[in-house]
Amino acid sequence: xxxxxxxxxxxxxxxxxxxxxxxxxxxxxxxxxxxxxxxxxxxxxxxxxxxxxxxxxxxxxxxxxxxxxxxxxxxxxxxxxxxxxxxxxxxxxxxxxxxxxxxxxxxxxxxxxxxxxxxxxxxxxxxxxxxxxxxxxxxxxxxxxxxxxxxxxxxxxxxxxxxxxxxxxxxxxxxxxxxxxxxxxxxxxxxxxxxxxxxxxxxxxxxxxxxxxxxxxxxxxxxxxxxxxxxxxxxxxxxxxxxxxxxxxxxxxxxxxxxxxxxxxxxxxxxxxxxxxxxxxxxxxxxxxxxxxxxxxxxxxxxxxxxxxxxxxxxxxxxxxxxxxxxxxx
Length: 330
Fold this sequence. Notes:
Helix 2 packs antiparallel against helix 3. The protein has helices spanning 19-32, 95-103, 112-119, 121-129, 149-156, 182-190, 235-239, 253-269, 303-311, 315-327, and strands at residues 6-13, 38-45, 50-53, 59-63, 68-70, 76-77, 81-84, 138-142, 160-164, 174-176, 195-200, 205-214, 217-228, 243-246, 276-283, 286-293. The chain is of the alpha+beta class. It has 10 helices and 16 strands. The chain starts with 5 loop residues before the first strand and ends with a helix. It is globular. The model has no long low-confidence stretch (mean pLDDT 93). The strands form 3 sheets. Strands 6-5-4-3-2-1-7 form a 7-stranded mixed β-sheet, covered by helices on one side. A 5-stranded antiparallel β-sheet has the order 14-13-12-15-16. The protein has a 4-stranded antiparallel β-sheet with strand order 8-11-9-10, covered by helices on one side. A hairpin with a 5-residue loop joins strand 3 and strand 4 (59-63).
């Protein structure tokens, strides 16, 4: 008896500036999934339109009632699994996951709650502190609140990082070295989000740690050292190659084991599933967590695929594992 192939929609795009990177990530997953096991389709979700990309790049609208597609021959195409590789909103902050849950559509990666939580840097760090995972000292501000610069600097020292609480891709982040620059930096961050974080500066090595659940266990794919040519790992460094990435990071075994342990604990404590990439600063051998990404970049130049390669898991197996887990979800 021949098992019928499962249909997988690789869902890419998004409503933020990160959609460009998501389309590249989606292309890699689309190219990598095993065609002997799956029929693979491309679905693009943008602010103005949701569409399935058919033959000759013909667009077919997605029926939002059940995430299906009506084809030219009148047939309906339904997907057994959506492979979610949207960076930023709505695929990385829980909105899409909640919608898929509501209509009974299976999807890869973590659930809506984990997505919403990890997209919120402040709340993630607050939850993880209960599990003994350290982070920088910080002050949290909402738009419209009075900003007492003296008090903030007294509390955190200088320099500080000012960042939007919920934005992907390092947009809106500034490093502030003088008290006089603080207010302007908050305005830049408030353009991206109504809530911002001001964090004390941690002087150490930045590492990016890929963690996934693979064949039933939580594994650290790799620890990548980020050597920015700019002052810090900003949008330009992330996507325009203005940083050097070294995998594995140049750290001693004791530190490596500590980073692996804390990264796994963070992943498991949050009830994560699927791809994740956590950013830490290592200071005096202690990893301080900055944030966790639940849909990290997955274009060929991105960190996670590079880590998988070094770890020895093929992209085909990595992606296939995600699809199988989603198919087996209750």
